[in-house]
Amino acid sequence: MAYFTSESFAFLRELSKNNNREWFAANKKRYEAELRDPALRFISDFGPRLNRIAPRLVADPRPVGGSMFRIYRDTRFSRDKSPYKTHLGIHFFHEKAKAAASVPGFYLHISPEQNFAAAGIWHPDAQSLAKIRAAVANGSSDWKAIKKSKVPIEGGSLKRPPRGFAADHPMVEDLKRTDFVTSVPLSEKEICSNKFMADFAADCRKMTPLVRFVARSLKLPW
């Protein structure tokens, strides 16, 4: 079963060229039929698969406050006053989440420019980042296994070691990290395929060790 179609991508391409409230109001039913509703079905149907991969992560199909990020941008502190996001974001987050950015999970990004599946933790708060760094510094067996598997770890890094860690620490480059994520690139063809649900589940399963490491570092149930 295909959830997303060429019409889903066509809507996002047109939104990029017409990112204003008048156009969106005139095309809101298209948004609901071609993007929002397929995304909510995908989230709902992915729930049983997610439970087999990582039972403590949540697939929440609510249209507001669930796994699907709002399409409306927060422009209060941004120079870019475009009212709408031109991508679809879906986050399968840990059940203990208070702020989605401070717990591990899986993420799906769909846009005409770039598509990917990702896992880990992006921009964790200072307390969470300190716990993750402590796990790395203390020789976490989960982290050693990830390093041995050569999973590509992505995201930002500091130029200097964080406070409290020596420049000659054997894990100093990992301790400089401000994000702990990995990702798998996807194509529009793959996302529109009848196999996409199974393929996304397989990608999540491969990236699970990083999610597990972060959860255990934060003392979250796994």
Give a structural overview:
The protein contains eight helices and five strands, in the order αααββββαααβαα. The protein is an alpha+beta fold and 222 residues long. It has one domain: BirA Bifunctional Protein, domain 2 (2-Layer Sandwich), CATH 3.30.930. Strands 1-2-3-4-5 form a five-stranded antiparallel sheet. α1 packs across α3 (28-53) and α3 (28-53) crosses α8 (196-217). The model has no long low-confidence stretch (mean pLDDT 95).
Write down the overall geometry: globular
> What's the end-to-end separation, in Å?
30 Å
CATH topology: BirA Bifunctional Protein, domain 2
Question: Which range does the strand content fall in?
Answer: 5-15%
Assign the structural class, choosing from mainly alpha, mainly beta, alpha/beta, alpha+beta, or little secondary structure.
alpha+beta
Number of domains: 1
Biggest sheet strand order reads 1-2-3-4-5
Give unreliable regions as ranges. none
Short description:
This protein has 222 residues and is an alpha+beta fold. Helix content is 43%, strand content 13%. The chain has a five-stranded antiparallel β-sheet with strand order 1-2-3-4-5.
Keywords:
single chain, 222 residues, alpha+beta, BirA Bifunctional Protein, domain 2, 5-stranded antiparallel sheet, 8 helices
Write the layout of secondary structure elements.
Elements: H1 6-17, H2 21-26, H3 28-53, E1 57-58, E2 88-94, E3 105-110, E4 115-121, H4 126-137, H5 141-149, H6 172-175, E5 180-186, H7 188-191, H8 196-217
Antiparallel strand pairs: 1-2, 2-3, 3-4, 4-5
Helix pairs in contact: 1-3, 3-8, 5-8
